[in-house]
Each structure stands twice: as structure tokens, then as C-alpha cells.
UniProtKB/TrEMBL annotation:
Gene3D superfamilies noted in UniProt: 3.60.21.10
Protein name: Ser/Thr phosphatase family protein
Ranges where the Calcineurin-like phosphoesterase domain occurs: 75-265
Signal peptide: 1-19
InterPro entries with a match to the protein in the record: Calcineurin-like_PHP (IPR004843), Metallo-depent_PP-like (IPR029052), STPP_CPPED1 (IPR051918)
Taxonomic classification: Bacteria, Pseudomonadati, Bacteroidota, Bacteroidia, Bacteroidales
An example molecular function term from Gene Ontology annotations: hydrolase activity
Swiss-Prot/TrEMBL keywords: Signal
Matches recorded under PANTHER family: METALLOPHOSPHOESTERASE, CALCINEURIN SUPERFAMILY, SECRETED PROTEIN
Length: 357
């Protein structure tokens, strides 16, 4: 019996010693912090079959690091697919039909189901046929509270979509920590309708949530120069682009502290895929606004989808500082590329300080 037990323990030790090793991996800068992981627009991973495993890698890495990074939530900036409703791929801007794309992005997020909540907003490519010709989206057929009990536990309200149905296109989630108190994450549809904005104002303006810190997640807000979009060339009706959203929702609100978006990207310069700015709301408090989109980070429009870059948002125990770092699980996997696993330019690693007068 002792021989059998010894052999079993030897096998277990052998398996442990052969567990997957990342030459470089992420850790919290302060062990008392918690984090949220920011996934930029995944559409270019999803539209090509060969790229889809790269988005799988990102969500698998997140699942493996929930405990290490004290991950409370995962945020995704939208454009989950390249085309919302096509039945034939052109072989140039993707080789996957819309059904194949939605199924693929849904499978990637399955790796997080039952493990951590994730908040996903909708982008312009998630509507219409190819890009927001109309408000219809297949989003609600693939993303709904019942698929992830962690999501159900944090969801406090869902607004109506254009059909008058409550979906996660417009939703509010609550997260609580000892150091940061109560946080709301508000996710809004692409170019939200007046109805969606009024719903959001009613929710975050409720006296129950007046002391919550609110993070607004929306697909399109800042361009690469840090300017808010005044208009965009889409055919949908009843739209509010970034400046209108600022004026109608963000500026009048006392508790929106941070706006996060994706959307904007340029092939030639990675620095033009990120931006940041702060402005004062009506109470004189600073509102931080951050854009992050890596889909052409490899310098190609039809490339690998973004080199697996994501952002680690570390919420420091002081209750006001968020450390932003940009990391690639893809590069971190190999000793031959791990030296490139962190982006270290000032626009890739910085602190956001949320202050009040």
C-alpha cells in the first residue's frame, strides 16, 4: 500500500513540476489591491478562424489569474464581431459568417462563466448587417445573465433595447470592496438612444447609488487625439455620439468618475490606438476618460487581431488610484518573446487618480 501511495505522490509531484509556466506573468503592485481586466475590441480576432484562438488565450489567461490579480470584473469595449448579420464571408475582411463569429466570441467568454463577472458593451459592428445600418443586434442571443451566475449576482438593472426588451445592451452592475466602497459599472449600447441615456440617469441618480463610484463603459467616446466624437457616419436613427453623451449624461452626473471606450484605431501607429483625457463635470470634479483599442497593434488591418494586448486596471488600496498596465499573454508565453510582454510607453502604463473637491 505504501508503495502505491508513494508512486501516486511521485506522479502528482511530477505533474505539478510540469504545469504550464509563463516566463513572464503579471502580479499586483500592492497585494491589498484588486483589479479589473480590460479587453479591447475583439472583432479582428473573431472574424478569422485562425485568429480566434488568440482571443481564447486572453480569456483563458484571465481565468488562470483571477486569484493572483484579485480580479473582480472583466470589461470589454465592444465590437465583439466584425459583421452582425452576414451569411457569406468575403474572404478578405474575414472568413467567418456572422453566426460563426457570434458563436466563437461566446465560446471565448465561456471560459469565464461561473468564475468571474464580465461586462460587455456593444459596438457599431455588433449592429445592422456589416456596421450599424440599423439598430438590430444578435448580442442578446449570446450574452444574457443566466449564462454566468457571477454576472447575475452583480447585475442590479437592465434597460430596454430598441425593441423595448430588457437586455444587457444597457445594464448596471455593482461591485463592493473594503477599500473602494461601492462601485457601479454602467454599460451602454453603441451611440445610445435618448431612452437609454434617460434610463441610465435615473439609475445612477437614485439616492441608493449617489455615493457609488460609477465607471461608464461605452464603445465609442474618444478618438486617438483624445477628442470626443461629435458625429459619426452611421445610418442608425436616434443616436447620441460622444459629445452628446458627455453633455446629457456624464457632465451632469456627480458620480461618474471614469469613462472607458475602444473603437478608434489606426494601422500605422500604435500610439494612435490609445488616448486619455480628464475634464471637470458640473460639480467641478475631474472625470477620467480612457480609450484603448489594439486590433491593429501588429500593424495590419487583416493581421492577427491585436497581439493579445489587454490592460490590467489595478485599484489601489487608497481608494482613489488606478494603476494602468498593458500586457500581452501571447508574448508572455514564450522565452523568445517574453521581453515584449509589457508595453512601457507613458501612454501604456500610468496612474489615474480619482479626486473630489
Amino acid at each position: 500500500m505504501k508503495t502505491i501511495l508513494s508512486a501516486f505522490l511521485l506522479i502528482c509531484c511530477s505533474l505539478i513540476s510540469q504545469a504550464q509556466v509563463y516566463p513572464v506573468n503579471a502580479n499586483l503592485e500592492d497585494e491589498k489591491s484588486f483589479s479589473m481586466i480590460l479587453l479591447p475590441d475583439p472583432q479582428s480576432y473573431i472574424k478569422f478562424a485562425a485568429n480566434q484562438p488568440l482571443f481564447d488565450l486572453q480569456t483563458a489567461w484571465i481565468a488562470n489569474n483571477i486569484e493572483t490579480l484579485h480580479i473582480k470584473n472583466v470589461l470589454c469595449t465592444g465590437d465583439l464581431v466584425e459583421q452582425n448579420s452576414i451569411i457569406q464571408a468575403d474572404g478578405i475582411n474575414g472568413d467567418q459568417t456572422s453566426r460563426e463569429q457570434w458563436e466563437a466570441v461566446s465560446r471565448s467568454f465561456e471560459k469565464l462563466d461561473g468564475k468571474v463577472p464580465y461586462v460587455v458593451c456593444t459596438g457599431n459592428h455588433d449592429y445592422g448587417y456589416k456596421a450599424s445600418e440599423k439598430r438590430f443586434t444578435q448580442f442578446r442571443y449570446y450574452f444574457y445573465p443566466e449564462r454566468n451566475h457571477c454576472l447575475q449576482e452583480s447585475l442590479i438593472a437592465a434597460g430596454n433595447n430598441y425593441e423595448g426588451l430588457p437586455t444587457l445592451e444597457n445594464a448596471v452592475y455593482e461591485f463592493i470592496s473594503d477599500t473602494w466602497g461601492k462601485i457601479l459599472v454602467l454599460s451602454l449600447e453603441f451611440a445610445p438612444r435618448d431612452e437609454a441615456i434617460e434610463w441610465a440617469r435615473h439609475i445612477i441618480g437614485d439616492k441608493k447609488y449617489k455615493d457609488h463610484k460609477v465607471i461608464l463603459l461605452t464603445h465609442s467616446f474618444l478618438d486617438y487625439e483624445g477628442k470626443r466624437f461629435i458625429t459619426e457616419n452611421y445610418q442608425m436613427q436616434d443616436v447620441n455620439y460622444a459629445e452628446a453623451l458627455w453633455q446629457k449624461l456624464v457632465y451632469p452626473s456627480d458620480n461618474i468618475k471614469l469613462v472607458i471606450c475602444g473603437h478608434e484605431c489606426h494601422i500605422t501607429d500604435y500610439a494612435q490606438q490609445v488616448s486619455f483625457r480628464t475634464d471637470k463635470n458640473h460639480s467641478g470634479n475631474e472625470v477620467a476618460q480612457m480609450m484603448f483599442n489594439a486590433q491593429t497593434a501588429d500593424g495590419q488591418w487583416f493581421g492577427n487581431g491585436g497581439d493579445c494586448w489587454l490592460r490590467i486596471l489595478e485599484f489601489k488600496p487608497d481608494g482613489k488610484t488606478i494603476s494602468v498596465r498593458t500586457f500581452s499573454p501571447l508574448f508572455a508565453l514564450s522565452p523568445t518573446t517574453c521581453q515584449y510582454a509589457w508595453r512601457k510607453q507613458p501612454f501604456d502604463q500610468f496612474n489615474i487618480t480619482l479626486t473630489e473637491k
